[in-house]
Amino acid sequence: MTIAPTRIPRQRELQADPRTMGTPEEPRDLRLYRRMRFIRRFEETLLGLFDEGVLNGTTHACIGQEADAVGVIEHVEEGDHIFSNHRCHGHYLARTGDALGLMAEIMGKEAGVCGGIGGSQHVCAPGFMSNGVQGGIVPTAAGIALAMKLRGSDRVSVVFIGDGTLGEGAVYETLNIAALWDLPLLIVLEDNEWAQSTPTELNTAGSMRARFEAFGIPVTETTTTDVAELDALAGNEIAAVRTTGKTRVLLVHTYRLCHHSKSDDHRPEEEVALRWVTEPLAIARQRIAESQWQRIDAEVEAALAEVVATARALP
Q1: What average pLDDT does this structure show over 290-314?
Q2: Gap between the Cα atoms of 270 and 289, Å rounded
Q3: Which residue numbers delimit the Dehydrogenase E1 component domain (predicted)?
Q4: Euclidean distance between CA atoms 142 and 176, whole angstroms
Q5: Fewer Cβ atoms within 10 A, N terminus or C terminus of the chain?
Q6: For residue range 141-192, what is the model confidence (pLDDT) as tens digits?
Q7: How far is residue 297's CA from residue 75's CA, in Å, rounded to a whole number?
Q8: How far apart are CA 304 and CA 39, in angstroms?
Q9: CA gap 238, 218 in Å, rounded
Q10: 81: pLDDT strictly greater than 80
Q11: For position 12, what pLDDT does the model report?
């Protein structure tokens, strides 16, 4: 039997679209809002394509958690590494702006960031990796952090995990090594209160914070959905990891406003409705003139319409 070799896709030159990613000259409040709006509309567009039957399989959207991705990744520099999980789209888009590459990847097309063979959960690009295996990406992130340390670099690894990942033994093995060896690793725990359809109080004993502190790892904890506040907190955390070379944790109590995957949601409707009041885009709009956020919304919409049209036409 002959097994065809796996194709390794060529890396494409990425040019961030200022309509979705903004520019360095744009006021920070506007740029952060623009990037969150970009992620939100990408995810909503993706779910719409599933409903149309354009896409197969499933996907895990990050609607409601955009501020975590944007606030943290705003401080990631060239040479740093980001590691994500099954809910990775927002992290990838905040890092690269590569809407076409990701859309084509989820469509299974050759122009996708991984040649159409990674799909929604398994995205690999320079400085970015995601994996659908719960907790499996944490040892990898620590390994890259160790490599950076051995090279004498001030580069850091940032790994995003969810509250459900706290049940995985590999996480605690990694915490032990990361603390013992002083690895330049920032763990961002996005606690969205539900592990698929199970609330955290039914599957997570004790304190989330204490789990890290037991290894001597400092934890900064927040319940904010304000991207400006997360931006400031994440900036401090990444700077501390970069200067000390030691592992730290940013524990963000957030909320997922959409299904776990594309159609399953068993949460009380009134609970979800209440969280829409304090969702990240609504909070960000409070400090932006209505004419400004409406202009940004229109620019993002136009950019994504072009992405979808292009992706549909790809072979």
Answers
A1: 97
A2: 30
A3: 34-307
A4: 11
A5: N
A6: 999 999 999 999 999 999 999 998 999 999 999 999 999 999 999 999 999 8
A7: 24
A8: 10
A9: 12
A10: yes
A11: 53
- Cα(87)–Cα(273) distance, integer angstroms: 21
CATH of domain 62-276: 3.40.50.970
What single-letter amino acid sits at 239? A
HEC assignment per residue over the chain: CCCCCCCCCCCCCCCCCHHHHCCCCCCHHHHHHHHHHHHHHHHHHHHHHHHHCCCCCCCCCCCCCHHHHHHHHCCCCCCCEEEECCCCHHHHHHHHCCHHHHHHHHCCCCCCCCCCCCCCCCCEECCEEECCCCCCHHHHHHHHHHHHHHCCCCCCEEEEEEHHHHHCHHHHHHHHHHHHCCCCEEEEEEECCEECCEEHHHCCCCCHHHHHHCCCCCEEEECCCCHHHHHHHHHHHHHHHHHHCCCEEEEEECCCCCCCCCCCCCCCHHHHHHHHHHCHHHHHHCCCCHHHHHHHHHHHHHHHHHHHHHHHHCC
Q: What percent of the chain has pLDDT over 70?
A: 95
Helix 28-52 to helix 66-73 angle (10° resolution) is 130
Amino acid at 189: L
Quick one: tokens of 46? 């993706």
pLDDT in tens, 49-69: 988 888 888 888 889 999 999
315/297 Cα distance (integer angstroms): 30
One-letter amino acid identity for 88? C
Tokens (6 digits) for 128: 């970015």
